[in-house]
Amino acid sequence: MFQQAKANFPSSSTFLLLLLSLHPSLPTGAPRHPHIPSLVPHATLFLSSPRFSARPQLDFTTYCNSSCYQQGELPPSRESLSEMLAYETLYADGRRTLTTVDLEEEGEGTAAQIPPTRGRPVPAPHRRRKRQIYGADGRFNIRGNNFLLDYPFSTAVRISTGCTGVLVSESHVLTAAHCVHDGKDYVKGARKLRVGFLVPPSNATRTRRPSSSARPVKTAAVRWVRVKRTRVPKGWIQGPQEISMDFDYSLLELRWPHKQPYMRLSVAPSAKDLAGKRIHFSGFDSDRPGELVYRFCPVEDESNDLIYQHCDARPGASGSGVYGRVWDPVAERWERKVIGVFSGHQWLEVNGENHDFNVAVRLTPLKFAQICYWVRGNHVDCQQD
Questions:
Q1: For the chain, which ranges sit under pLDDT 70?
Q2: pTM of the model
Q3: Cα 33 to Cα 233: distance, rounded to the nearest angstrom
């Protein structure tokens, strides 16, 4: 049985206040500002309407061997990258399109920024038991309007298919691709996809009693908003045997703009350039219904496309915006920015040894350029993060 955290918010409010108010030391060396390649739409093709026959994979787990884990392979060809970064758009009325893309020319600097592939993980054997809690449970329930509805916790939203997302603009939510598509077809709930915003608890709000001796706990209500457009990279839509966590991200466009604070995107820096070498994310873990759950942990390992860590998580947290405190040389301060998307769990078999991690998809320069274009609709405005 998983050990449950004893530090439940608000009993741990003093600790969280201290944690959130910490001022990291200045970076010893200025991180190199990444070059953002141009990703320009080439052509849009109309596709048949999806069947919406898939089921959400809330407990997403993959298996990766030595060749998959290798970090020094040659970069893929430009044609292969263009194919993986093409994307599907699903509209609220069921229409579906495929948009092909062009990358900027070699002379403009893209080659140095093309990330090498690491192979394609395959689904984990069923005999392996998925493990997403490491030792004592280090998650915190976020309660009370002073925290639940304030930045950065207010950027976390619910996805109607059972996942989590993060607000990245006035009208857009970033989440995991497997929350809306299984690699072969869209999930049933994507037909009428909605995003849930937490609203302040009231006297009429549902209450739950954690135990017979505890006082009833008010849980925040949820206001649901329809999604008018869903985008998924072609790198994810390749059939279940070729699914790669590397492209496990999707952008949802809301029918109406919201008024809550959102978190800016950033190309994921190396872990050594993150404040405290830590990542953070908040999500709606399935084992704590009605609660927003926050966690943080150090980065254990990283590849060109993935962040390996042992942040405690359970199904439902998939799609959470993984953020870190990134140094902004213009503002000359550390800022919280979304640098990845929490995907799920991965078993690694390297040199005959088994390892397991919780995994987040890194926002590489190419992925940042793609998502930024989805948000802004203009690749010229995406030349820097």
A1: 1-33, 66-75, 105-132, 201-219, 239-243, 385
A2: 0.85
A3: 25
